[in-house]
Amino acid sequence: STILKLLEPFYDPTDGDIVINDSHSLKDVDLKWWRSKIGVVSQDPLLFSNSIKNNIKYSLISPNSLEAVENGFDFRGNSDSSLNRDNSKNGKCTSILDEISKRNTTSDLLEVISSINSVEDSKVVDVSKKVLIPRFVASLPDKYDTLVGSSSSKLSGGQKKRISIGRAVIRNPKILIL
């Protein structure tokens, strides 16, 4: 966890420097750009009370993309779009749920839902194949639309981990930390 906190970076090293490609200090790199290159899967993954499909799609949504939705940006498959940027504001980590909770109108929430729905299901299935999700999804009654609770009691630890890995991989990070 310390290495992760230094790589993200949530704090600076007390001594020395973290260097990228033998030439760039992490202190000199744009934080948003750097974090967009990293995918993290925690030891005990958190799944949202929603479908398996949407749990994978959620990593493509960030507070930056919510602002972009308001400004009319297109998120469909463009790797440089705001959907693929990190989820930080002013160097502090925030979550999509924090941002959604600040929304007061139904239309704001509908915009978020619309941006989630704009991610093609085929992209979720393609990523899922890479992390072996179809093996257990095939046995579920609603396949990728099967709802999982926030405690994910319907899934084994390995199944939750695979969904979490899929959520990280769909962003196509340059660095994947497990």
From TrEMBL:
One GO CC annotation: mitochondrial inner membrane
GO terms of molecular function: ABC-type oligopeptide transporter activity; ATP binding; ATP hydrolysis activity
InterPro entries: ABC_transporter-like_ATP-bd (IPR003439), P-loop_NTPase (IPR027417), Type_1_exporter (IPR039421)
Lineage: Eukaryota, Sar, Alveolata, Apicomplexa, Aconoidasida
Pfam families registered for this protein in UniProt: ABC_tran
Protein name per the record: Multidrug resistance protein
Gene that specifies this protein: pbmdr1
Record-annotated ABC transporter domain positions: 1-178
Gene3D superfamilies per the UniProt record, alphabetical: P-loop containing nucleotide triphosphate hydrolases
PANTHER family on file: ATP-BINDING CASSETTE SUB-FAMILY B MEMBER 10, MITOCHONDRIAL, ATP-DEPENDENT PERMEASE MDL1, MITOCHONDRIAL
Gene Ontology biological process terms from the UniProt entry: oligopeptide export from mitochondrion
